[in-house]
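Example 3.2
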Amino acid sequence: MTQVHVIANQKGGVGKTTLAVNLGAVTYDVLVNPEPILQKTAEAIGDPESPVMVASTDPQASSVWWSRRVERQGGLPFDFAQIDDPRDLRKLRNLHYDHIFVDTPGSLEDERILQAALDECDDVLVPMVPEPLCYDPTTRTIEAVLTPRGIPYRVVVNSWDPRDGLPDLQQTAQFIRLKGWPMCNTVVRRYKVHSRASAEGMVVTQYPRNRVAMEAREDFFRLALEMGYGGGATIPSQAGTPNLQEV
């Protein structure tokens, strides 16, 4: 059965598009090329029967611009669709994919689009950057939108810069625990390669073969597997990998 995963937070700038696109890429890689999943760069073969699709519902369409640049550089490893009419989200269940990742808008004005996506989803991933300005919008998204629906969700701390040290990460993790929200152990670190990727026409599995790119890819592989998107695959532990159980 198709599983529909919505990436949602009514706070803009928390990395929803980056998560949706790169989770789509690593989930494809785990499903199609499970061994080994970190020692290589996946080939974007444009499989017409890809098990993964990324769907954008964001009127700003930043993921559309990104996907077009990737196509010009060699191709996406997953299928991509821009959904302009929220009613078309009802068709997702009829598509033959294992996983569909839905990127949603980051504003209160577009809540009808988010609501339409939530009508069709199996679970929600809520990205939260480790900054106090993100606390209130995330609280509203979870307590006013997700909790009343009873939709399974998890919060993931996204775009944490290791150069900032642990205080912001620890404070954010404490805030999430006090709220009682289910939280991913995986932390997605901020790397320059992520911010350059859209302009250079790459997804995370197409990054160059070097240490920094390996670490950047690892976060998305680890998050996908923690969320259950990669079946029973495992990845080796790397020294220094952040884990919120230990923060």
